[in-house]
Amino acid sequence: MVVSNRLPIAYREDSTGATIPLLSPGGLVAALAPALAGSGAAWVGWDGTFSGSEEPLDLEGFSLQPVSLTQAQITNHYEGLSNSTLWPLFHNVGVNPEYSEAWWADYLQVNRLFAQRVCNVVAEDGTVFVQDYQLMLVPEFVRSLRPDVAIGYFHHIPFPDATHVAGFEHAAELLEGLGACDVVGFQRQSDVDHFRACLQELNPSVEGTSLPHSAAYPISIDSAAVSTAASQPMVLAKAQEYATSWGNPEWVFLGVDRLDYTKGITQRLLAFEELLASGAVSADTAVFVQAGSPSRENVARYQQLSAEIDAIIERVNTTFPSVTGRPAVVYLRENLPRTDMLALFVVADVMVVSSLADGMNLVAKEFVAARHNDTGVLILSTHAGAAEQMPEALLVDSFVVSDITKVMQEALIMEKGETARRMKQLRADVAIHDVAEWATTILGDLSQARKA
Ligand code: GDG
């Protein structure tokens, strides 16, 4: 059984106006589908509505178990404690975590509701696989009711320095929550080390005789599926359409992110501004395409980020006009259809992933999986988990804008043979280390830990 904050579904209206649920295909769905194929397998999460219904939905072989939540619970648990306290706490990029007692109360309450639902549905001696920071207390609540089940947890985001995490007033409770697991997984070894140090520092009263097995399980993508999808005629036609609409510039720089302050979007735009100012490219020879899907728009810090990005783009486009009138920075501020996203990966010459902190960063992996002719340069922040697995990228400390500009310049002058050598290796690695490998490894360790 998988437990995640959101169920992998979206509701659409059909031709009669009736609302129908559809499975949203994503990496996690693809990775866990084989494990969930057995009878009794289910996925517990919020369905994104306030319908109040907890009726299970059977979709494409998945048994989805919606947990009903109120608007106040979403405000306090999701927007509040999860995304205004824990997200900045765990990313530690200079944004102060906010806190309110009411948020913590609903964090507890929502974690309890999820755990109760799990316990009602999970088979005897079953396996429960909990996803991410919104649900860190679920393992403990499940364990207290169901000592028979195996419990795994995967932390998709960074686990920073122990002293920093320990500063949060409920840190010990969060660690106790995870202490009930058989396996706790992280993206990187450094996250594992920080987690263990934090356990030592806080010494939470973990029940049971042993601490959970903790290890790094770097997540990945369904590489074969991305690669195949990126070569479809529809994607190639869209890529061509994009290039034409930008006036076929010599250089297409690309950024693709959820609009989040951890992704270093302003840093990369400032670096492109410096690149234009240096004269290495002009608005006629180069374009920076920034795709940004709006995210957590009810949280104040995200509204502030959006305004900062707008201001930089406006300044760059005014300072560096092109002859044709096409802006130097093209901003696609929307949740793009998958075809368009893949077309952007195909058409880009230089992909810039400049996260200030990032558990993994799947966009970097999707970009290389989408490249069929071994062209294209990946600029990748050392602060993204992906950097450890993608050493052939041009790695950069993305806190330093002038360093991003420097690697952009390197990308412009890289020999074709060198570009191809790097891209070939990146593609080969992401093809082997895909999300199926991630799922098999962590679920395999979970079943071993339970037997031990
Ligand atoms: C968290 C961690 C970790 C983005 N915009 C659009 C769109 N996307 C897709 C991308 C990619 C996914 O969303 C984003 O994944 P990331 O890994 O880059 O980042 P987070 O959302 O922050 O994810 C992260 C991840 O969990 C997995 O463990 O890697 O570190 O923060 O798949 O392609 N997809 C579409 N339109 C968009 O506009 N269709």
Overall geometry comes to: globular
Number of strands: 16
The unique ligands bound to this protein are: GDP-alpha-D-glucose
Radius of gyration over alpha carbons? 22 Å
> How many domains, as an integer?
2
CATH topology title of the largest domain: Rossmann fold
Number of helical elements: 16
Regarding CATH, which class of the largest domain? Answer: Alpha Beta
CATH architecture tag of the largest domain: 3-Layer(aba) Sandwich
The low-confidence runs, each spanning 5 or more residues with pLDDT under 50, are none
**Helix percentage:** 40-55%
Description:
- With 452 residues, the protein is an alpha/beta fold.
- Helices cover 46% and strands 17% of the residues.
- The protein has 16 helices and 16 strands.
- Helix 2 crosses helix 3 (101-121) and helix 3 crosses helix 4.
- It starts with a strand and ends with a helix.
- The relative contact order is 0.11.
- The mean pLDDT is 94.
What would you say about this model in short?
The chain is α/β, with parallel strands linked by helices and 452 residues long. Helices cover 46% and strands 17% of the residues.
Describe the SSE topology:
Blueprint: E1 2-6, E2 9-13, E3 19-23, H1 27-36, E4 43-46, E5 57-59, E6 62-66, H2 71-91, H3 101-121, E7 127-131, H4 138-145, E8 150-154, H5 162-166, H6 171-179, E9 183-186, H7 189-202, E10 213-216, H8 223-230, H9 233-245, E11 251-258, H10 265-278, E12 286-293, H11 300-319, E13 329-332, H12 338-347, E14 350-353, H13 362-369, E15 377-381, E16 394-396, H14 401-413, H15 416-432, H16 435-451
Parallel strand pairs: 1-4, 1-7, 4-6, 7-8, 8-9, 9-10, 11-12, 11-14, 12-13, 14-15, 15-16
Antiparallel strand pairs: 2-3, 5-6
Helix pairs in contact: 1-16, 2-3, 3-4, 4-6, 9-12, 10-11, 10-14
The structure holds GDP-alpha-D-glucose (GDG).
